[in-house]
Write a structure and sequence with these properties.
Layout (H helix, E strand, L loop, with lengths): L1 H10 L8 E5 L4 H17 L2 E8 L5 H17 L3 E5 L2 H8 L3 H20 L3 E3 L4 H14 L3 H4 L5 E4 L2 E4 L7 H11 L15 H16 L3 H27 L3 E5 L2 E5 H5 L3 H15 L10 H12 L4 E5 L5 E5 L2 E5 L10 E4 L3 E4 L5 E7 L11 E5 L7 E4 L6 E3 L6 E3 H7 L4 H4 L4 E3 L5 E4 L3 E2 L12 E7 L2 H6 L3
Parallel strand pairs: 1-2, 1-4, 2-3, 4-6
Antiparallel strand pairs: 5-6, 7-8, 8-11, 9-10, 10-11, 12-16, 13-14, 14-22, 15-22, 16-19, 17-18, 19-20, 20-21
Length: 473
């Protein structure tokens, strides 16, 4: 076992010398085996170990005894001990999660705080080869992404450091033999005996049969995991250039994609690119409830000829298709995008979208000199002050060259302006709330004509190339 684990650690460069390592220890056999192993090699590698334990408070006094047990083991080994009691049941109810997902979120958030407190760059967990087989079987059964089918990664980014699983190369039986040989005590969680959970049913009934039929099964599953990871790394390297044309904008909690260049890609590149976007939005913590079905639904939405549509993903992520754009966002409060800004005359204003509207007064003008991003307003027809604002329900504009009005909503639809841009598009209005101009879209009857007598107001909109392109689709 020692040689197998040591070789696996070196293969993935898990434990550089002189590292500070936080070890997640529940008190069970797997985590106690990991703690004993790391404690036995820490002096040779110059490691500093910090033990982190979470009492999920699911089992009352029994789980509190687990915490005291781990604390006692740390005192015997002279290791720093960090613990926290978390009412996971309340957290679960508030967020409508399963007990396992709620416990995992609380536990991992605690680990991250411990890493930061101790300046550690490594979180070590006791997942082993049997866990790997169970995880891959579960993901194959319920559906996942190709990256998901790789199962548990030996080493992956976590917080400001990495998460490692040194025991993925050995089985539960190996760990139990190791504990017995070194007389390492551990606690038993009775919930692991119950068949109420799918993972337990696989562990108790399916895995023994598979191991009997296929000796060395865990080695083949680990090899499969590594092959999937290698394939994904190759696809990821191939995808970077092509996805430059797909991503319109990418900020925290929101990514906007261009539909057409995405659909021209090969399916594997489409799927992998979407997976990378989801990893980004979920901060590399993809919810277990998100599966390949969600990606299939997203691709179906993009392939549909219907101009709009919406999907709801786990944890409040929404997917909104509008014409040639697709927005993935956690931020769907339209009030957050609304604005109303005073426009001095003359003067300028920078909008929340970073667009800039300027106004200046001229004594005369030539219609031929008016640029596409400008409007010339007859000052005698408007009431000051002017404002720049986003659309309101029922907004209408008196269109230049007509005797009637038209709904702003209809103009956006006819112009195929994506929904997210409609919510932030600037409208210049006067004190009577008359719409004087829809930049790049429509001009109003308030525009000056060549015969206009008196000063005129020249409005200029300086905006991004993305908005310009939207008006020309």
């Amino acid at each position: 076992m020692w040689e197998t684990v040591s070789t696996f650690i070196d293969k993935y460069d898990m434990l550089p010398n002189h590292s500070i390592v936080v070890v997640g220890v529940s008190g069970g056999a797997d985590s106690m085996g990991l703690l004993h192993y790391l404690d036995s090699i820490k002096d040779d590698k110059g490691l500093k170990l910090v033990v982190a334990h979470v009492d999920h408070m699911f089992r009352g006094e029994e789980s509190e005894e687990d915490m005291r047990f781990v604390q006692h083991q740390c005192e015997k080994r002279n290791l720093p001990f960090e613990s926290e009691q978390i009412d996971v049941a309340a957290y679960q109810r508030d967020r409508k999660l399963s007990p396992q997902v709620a416990a995992r979120e609380c536990r991992y958030a605690f680990y991250e705080r411990v890493l930061e407190k101790h300046g550690a760059g490594i979180l070590a967990l006791g997942h082993h080869a049997d866990d790997q087989v169970e995880t891959i079987l579960m993901r194959l059964g319920r559906g996942s992404s190709m990256a998901g089918y790789a199962g548990i990664l030996p080493k992956r980014p976590y917080g400001n450091g990495v998460m490692i699983r040194p025991f993925l190369s050995i089985t539960k039986a190996d760990i139990m033999e190791f504990l017995k040989l070194h007389e390492v005590p551990f606690r038993h969680d009775p919930s692991n005996d119950k068949d109420a959970y799918r993972r337990n049913r696989l562990r108790h009934h399916v895995l023994p049969l598979l191991k009997e039929e296929f000796p060395g099964l865990h080695e083949r599953f680990q090899a499969f995991s590594e092959q999937v990871q290698e394939n994904e790394q190759y696809i990821e390297a191939s995808i970077e250039k092509e996805w430059n044309d797909v991503i319109i904008s990418k900020v925290k909690d929101r990514v906007i994609l261009s539909r057409k260049p995405l659909l021209f890609m090969a399916k594997p590149l489409q799927r992998r690119g979407i997976q990378l976007i989801l990893n980004y939005l979920y901060n590399n913590e993809i919810p277990p409830s998100l599966s390949s079905i969600h990606i299939d639904n997203l691709l179906s939405l993009l392939e549909s000829e219907h101009p709009s549509g919406r999907l709801h993903f786990p944890h409040g992520l929404q997917v909104i298709k509008s014409y040639n754009e697709c927005t993935l966002t956690f931020d769907m409060d339209e009030n957050d995008t609304a604005y109303k800004c005073l426009l001095e005359v003359p003067g300028n204003v920078t909008l929340p979208t970073d667009d800039i509207i300027t106004s200046e007064i001229r004594t005369h003008h030539k219609p031929s000199d008016v640029k596409e991003n400008q409007a010339v307003i007859d000052l005698s027809k408007v009431a000051l002050p002017l404002h720049v604002r986003t659309r309101l329900e029922g907004d209408r504009i008196k269109l230049k060259g007509t005797n009637g009005t038209k709904k702003i909503k209809s103009i956006f639809i006819e112009g195929k302006i994506p929904i997210q841009q409609r919510n932030t598009w600037p409208l210049i209005v006067d004190a009577n709330n008359e719409i004087l101009w829809m930049p790049m879209l429509k001009r109003s009857t308030f525009e000056a004509i060549e015969e206009t007598v008196g000063p005129v107001l020249v409005l200029t909109c300086k905006t991004s190339q993305k908005v310009w392109e939207a008006t020309k689709k």
